[in-house]
Every structure is written in structure tokens, then in C-alpha cells.
Design a protein that fits this description.
The complex is a heterodimer of chains A (155) and B (280). Chain A has 155 residues and is of the alpha+beta class. Chain A has one domain: 2-Layer Sandwich (Beta-Lactamase). Chain A is built from six helices and six strands; from the N terminus they run ααββαααβαβββ. In chain A, strand 4 (115-122) and strand 5 (128-139) form a beta hairpin. With 280 residues, chain B is an alpha/beta fold. Helix content of chain B is 16%, strand content 24%. In chain B, a hairpin with a 2-residue loop joins strand 7 and strand 8. Classes of the chains: A alpha+beta (155), B alpha/beta (280).
């Protein structure tokens, strides 16, 4: 399947999930306390961390993640699912492409379960990195789905 | 609407000659709308005196609990309307991840901690869980959102029909985990969306900077954090609240004077004295 098609399918899946999971009081553009605390935790950790919100938008990655991604969050800002999924390529340990919908962060988001996998990851500079990729959903009060958090570092 | 502070102390009631002006009762704020809607924000020991002060003939009262720490619920059993079958009492507050609001409150309102059970209360209170969608309570629209404080804790934003807004956030640590506060925009600051453009913000001001240095994560603000938070939220009037039980009237006067002189806020700051009343 061509990469563009894979990304499109992934975005459709992310979009349908939003309707199922969104809820709670809508007050201005305020992030939920779960996302705020996740970001504060991520900013204090020495491990690369990324956070997507309930709409699948990458809303934060920390300084350690910036080094892996060779991108600064201050420069990219939020990235919609169609953007950040197109930003990477992922292969398994046998160097077979892993489709977007099987990426740990996407699985954690779509299926709301913790996922961990060792993969090869290619970012913007075309270098392939061997990455331990762990992701888990952020489920807050009243079982409200707030997004997902991923920790990934080179091994 | 009229807002009256019935209890301004945090953590533990602290009566005595050193706390006469700011008061010794724990968190409770009375809010009466122009059309007569009565809201009570938290049920600390300050709620006891409300029993005799509420408008006569009131048929419904809504108690909005921010969270279930003792200083915010200890007065519940002493609130007269709960023992009056002619008054409809609604209690709003957060559930935990494993227990609903009613079950959580029953842990306090039952022996051995309290002699009267919830089921024994004559008014048969009705429980509602927050945060939830914005709700209309009488003439008010009430929004709630989780804020940074240990355990499920919300702040409330109450909007009157004339558009005037009071926001109540007595226990709040928006600076948790950041090296410099504020360093992030409003959207990424706990409670800031709830408080934005409030006509009156009642906010946690429990610690001095020196005290906060040893109390990270306890869920409270310094006076400096509170002033910065109010600036970020662009409020029009700020009432420092939830005073530390160790702080005397003299200490609180000095804390607020020093901080206000340093920050020079563009909005009005009125220290939260027990019994103080505000027309909003």
C-alpha cells in the first residue's frame, strides 16, 4: 500500500475514534489536566517522550525527543495526525515496513492499550535508528480518553 | 450576584486572636444570584453559620464541592438545610476513578467519623458528579474542570445571566513541575481556561515562596504564583483565599502587601477576609 494511502487510512481511523471518546466540559482551548500533567512530567524526564491528544494531534514532544526527531517542538508546534504519521517510516527487526496503523503510538491511541515494540525508525534526516517504542493511552476521570503518550529511545 | 466569604482558611480551622480578621473557618463561599439562586461553594466549617443567614423560604440549595479533602467537607453535617425536608439540596462534586461521589462522601458522613449517615439526612440530598458538561443551576451557568491538586479536584466557573463571571479555585497548584511560572500559554496552564476573563477570581494563596520550596506537590500556590496566574487569565478582580493555618492576620497582611508591591498587578486584589462580600 502506498505511504499516502496508509496515512489516509490512519487518519480516518483516528477521526472515527474521536467521536467515540470525546466528552467533558468544553472550556475555551484549555488542555485537560491529564495532558497538562503529562507534559509537565515529559518536560522533566531524560527520556524522549511524545504526547498526542484525543484528536490524534501530536501536542508535545520533549527536548530528548527533539534530538531523536531532529526537530524542535517550538518550530513545528502541534502536528495533526496526517502530519506526524507522514514524518516517520517504521520497520520491524526483519526490516519489513510496519504499517501506520500498527505503530505502537497509533495502536495505543486507537485501541487504548499499552504497546511496546522494538523497531527501526527513520526520521527526517533519513538515518535509521533502532528504537524501543512504548506507548500507552491516557485515560482520565470518568474513563475519559485524553490521548496517548509514547516513550521512545535508541537502543 | 452577591458573593460572601464564609470560610477562607485552608487545611485546618484556625480560630484565635491572631486570625480574627482573615478568619479561622475553612473554605466556604456563599453566592446568591439576582433572581435568588443560592450556591454554596465548598462545605468547610464556614458553612455552619450559613444555615441562619440564607434567604428565608429558600426551596433549593446547590452545594458545589471542589474536592473531598476534610477542610472542604467538614461542615456538611452541620448545614441546617440538610436536616430540613422542605429544602431540596443538590451536592455537586468529583467522583474518584473507583467510587462515585455519594460513596466517597459516605466515608465521612458515617460512623465512626460522624454519627449521622447520609441516608439519615432529612433533605435527602441529590448527588451530581463533576466535571461534566456545562450545567444550568437556576439562573447560573456552571462550568467545571479538573485542576492540579492531589486527587480529583475541580474549579468552578459561574456565569450570571448578565454575563458576569466568578471563578472559584481554592486549592490549586498550577506551577507544579515547571521551573519558572508561568512559562507556558494559557491553554497549557491548569485552570487558566476556566478562569479567563473572570470578573472575580477566588484563588489559592497558601504559601510564601520559602514555604513552597519544601511543599512541592502539596497542591497549593504561593502568593506570587496566584498573582501570575490571575495575570495570565486576565481576571478583573482577585481574592486570595485558602490561607495557611500557620499564617496570622499580621503575616497575611505582610505577604499580600509585599507581593502586590512587587508584582504591581493591573487588576484589583482584595485579600480574602471571612465575612467579606462582593457584588459582581
Amino acid at each position: 500500500m502506498p505511504p499516502a494511502r496508509r496515512v489516509l487510512l490512519s487518519c480516518v481511523a483516528l477521526g472515527s475514534l474521536r467521536e467515540k471518546c470525546s466528552g467533558g466540559a468544553a472550556i475555551s482551548a484549555q488542555k485537560s489536566i491529564e495532558l497538562i500533567l503529562a507534559r509537565q512530567l515529559a518536560s522533566c524526564l531524560a527520556m524522549p517522550v511524545g504526547i498526542v491528544d484525543a484528536e490524534g494531534t501530536l501536542v508535545y514532544y520533549n527536548e530528548q525527543a527533539e534530538e531523536v526527531l531532529d526537530q524542535r517542538f517550538d518550530e513545528t508546534g502541534d502536528m495533526k495526525a496526517s502530519e506526524w504519521t507522514a514524518f516517520f517510516a517504521v520497520e520491524d527487526l526483519e526490516r519489513k515496513p510496519v504499517p501506520v496503523e500498527q505503530w505502537p503510538l497509533v495502536l495505543a491511541y486507537k485501541e487504548q492499550r499499552a504497546v511496546s515494540q522494538i523497531v527501526w525508525l527513520r526520521c527526517r534526516d533519513d538515518a535509521w535508528l533502532n528504537i524501543s517504542f512504548t506507548a500507552f493511552p491516557l485515560i482520565g476521570q470518568h474513563g475519559r480518553f485524553e490521548g496517548a503518550m509514547t516513550i521512545f529511545w535508541e537502543i | 450576584m452577591r458573593v460572601t466569604l464564609r470560610g477562607t482558611r485552608g487545611s485546618l480551622s484556625s480560630p484565635g486572636p491572631d486570625t480574627v480578621r482573615y478568619g479561622g473557618n475553612t473554605s466556604c463561599v456563599e453566592l446568591i444570584g439576582d433572581a435568588g439562586t443560592a450556591l454554596v461553594l465548598d462545605a468547610g466549617t464556614g458553612i455552619r453559620q450559613l444555615s441562619g443567614l440564607l434567604p428565608k423560604g429558600l426551596k433549593r440549595i446547590d452545594i458545589l464541592l471542589t474536592h473531598l479533602h476534610m477542610d472542604h467537607i467538614q461542615g456538611l453535617g452541620f448545614f441546617g438545610p440538610l436536616h430540613n425536608p422542605a429544602v431540596e439540596v443538590h451536592v455537586w462534586g468529583p467522583a474518584s476513578t473507583t467510587q462515585n461521589l455519594s460513596a466517597r462522601l459516605k466515608r465521612y458522613l458515617s460512623p465512626p467519623l460522624f454519627p449521622v449517615r447520609v441516608s439519615d439526612l432529612a433533605s435527602k440530598p441529590i448527588f451530581h458528579e463533576v466535571p461534566c458538561e456545562d450545567v444550568d443551576i437556576g439562573e447560573f451557568r456552571v462550568a467545571s474542570a479538573l485542576v492540579c491538586h492531589p486527587g480529583p479536584t475541580v474549579g468552578y466557573r459561574i456565569t450570571a445571566p448578565n454575563g458576569r463571571v466568578v471563578t472559584y479555585m481554592p486549592d490549586h497548584e498550577p506551577a507544579l513541575g515547571v521551573l519558572k511560572f508561568p512559562s507556558l500559554p494559557r491553554a497549557w496552564t491548569s485552570g487558566a481556561g476556566l478562569a479567563e476573563n473572570s470578573d472575580l477570581l477566588i484563588h489559592d494563596s497558601q504559601y510564601t515562596n520559602a514555604e513552597y520550596a519544601t511543599r512541592f506537590g502539596w497542591g497549593h500556590s504561593t502568593v506570587e504564583h496566584m498573582l501570575e496566574f490571575a495575570k495570565l487569565a486576565e481576571v478583573r478582580k482577585l481574592v486570595p483565599f485558602h490561607h495557611d493555618p500557620e499564617h496570622s492576620d499580621v503575616t497575611l497582611d505582610r505577604m499580600f502587601e509585599d507581593a502586590i508591591q512587587k508584582a504591581k498587578p493591573a487588576y484589583q486584589v482584595v485579600p480574602g477576609l471571612e465575612g467579606a462580600s462582593f457584588e459582581v
